[in-house]
């Protein structure tokens, strides 16, 4: 039977993409990591990685062994949890959400952990599709996304809606579409999607698609999305949570539309029972959106 420590080392190596970081995470030496990979390759009589200097790529056999390792380790972890008392205030929680939602969720999760220090919160901020894949491949147990998943291994529940905001420089008293065209749009990872929803609802036929709109800049850092708008360099459309956390709201004009909201979906793996600590977080999180 294959050694589970070899599988754990291999899975960690794939996730980190680096031998040194794998050794640090597992409290091993780098030669020890290399030895585990060699033993795994010897056991399966197949090359699992192709090395290119300090980088590597998975071989077809490596991809198969990685998926097997995730399933094996996941089942082992689930078994350990089932064999101990299912305490709602004890254990590790693997959670994820996109950036805007993390502004609402992560501080509340930390407050919950502070009340119950035997909980261990592991929270990842990631795009919707990354979170969906992490749920499918058992890297995350509970997530929140703003895109409805369509996958048989995903169970999703709509837990609320988050308003979107049209954000312009403070010197604009209204939201005249010609002024927006002159300013130009400040894009971000979900920018075009959010802007399509807002501008089509607010301006109807005046808005003829993002391709016809001037692009004034792009930023992918959540904490800086609104900075160029505050400087008068353009306008953007972001979830309400981003605006709520911006420290200089006096430099902005913020407009909402009653019909422009983004649904929030709580997702988990279908048919996988969750420990009591997750059920408690699910109960709490319904009031956070």
Unreliable sequence segments: none
Fraction in beta strands: 15-25%
Rg over C-alpha atoms, rounded to the nearest angstrom: 23 Å
Neighbour order of strands in the largest sheet? 4-3-5-10-6-9
**Total beta strand runs:** 10
H-E order: HHHEEHEHEHEEHEHEHEHEH
Roughly what percent helix?
40-55%
**Major beta sheet, specifics?**
6 strands, mixed
Task: Give the overall form.
Answer: globular
**Count of alpha/pi helices:** 11
What is the end-to-end distance?
47 Å
Give the rounded overall mean pLDDT. Answer: 90
Helix/strand-derived class? Answer: alpha/beta
Task: Describe the structure in your own words.
The chain has 289 residues and is an alpha/beta fold. Helices cover 43% and strands 25% of the residues. It contains 11 helices and 10 strands. The strands form 3 sheets. The protein has a 6-stranded mixed sheet, sandwiched between helices. The chain has a two-stranded antiparallel sheet with strand order 1-2. The protein has a two-stranded parallel ribbon with strand order 7-8. α1 (4-16) packs across α2, α1 crosses α4 (60-82) and α2 (19-26) crosses α3 (30-44). The model has no long low-confidence stretch (mean pLDDT 90).
């Amino acid at each position: 039977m294959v050694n589970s420590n070899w599988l754990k080392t291999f899975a960690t190596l794939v996730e980190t993409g680096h031998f040194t970081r794998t050794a640090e995470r597992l409290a091993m030496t780098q030669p020890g990591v290399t030895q585990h990979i060699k033993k795994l390759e010897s056991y399966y009589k197949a090359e699992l990685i192709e090395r290119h200097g300090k980088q590597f790529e998975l071989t077809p056999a490596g991809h198969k062994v990685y998926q097997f390792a995730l399933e094996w380790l996941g089942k082992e972890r689930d078994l350990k949890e089932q064999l101990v008392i299912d305490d709602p205030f004890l254990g590790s929680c693997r959670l994820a959400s996109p950036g805007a939602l993390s502004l609402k969720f992560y501080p509340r999760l930390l407050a919950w952990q502070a009340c119950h220090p035997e909980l261990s919160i592991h929270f990842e901020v990631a795009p919707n599709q990354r979170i969906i894949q992490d749920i499918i491949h058992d890297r995350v147990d509970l997530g929140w996304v703003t895109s409805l998943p369509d996958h048989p291994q995903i169970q999703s529940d709509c837990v609320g809606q988050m308003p979107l905001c049209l954000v312009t420089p403070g010197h604009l008293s209204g939201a005249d579409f010609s002024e927006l065209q002159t300013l130009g749009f400040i894009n971000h990872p979900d920018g075009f999607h959010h802007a399509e929803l807002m501008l089509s609802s607010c301006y109807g036929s005046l808005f003829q698609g993002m391709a016809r709109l001037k692009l004034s800049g792009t930023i992918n850092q959540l904490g800086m999305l609104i900075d160029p708008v505050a400087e008068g360099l353009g306008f953007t459309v972001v979830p309400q949570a981003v605006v709520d956390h911006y420290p200089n709201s006096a430099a902005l004009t913020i407009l909402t539309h009653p019909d422009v909201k983004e649904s929030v979906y709580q997702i988990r793996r279908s048919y996988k029972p969750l420990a009591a600590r997750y059920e408690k977080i699910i109960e709490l999180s319904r009031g956070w959106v």
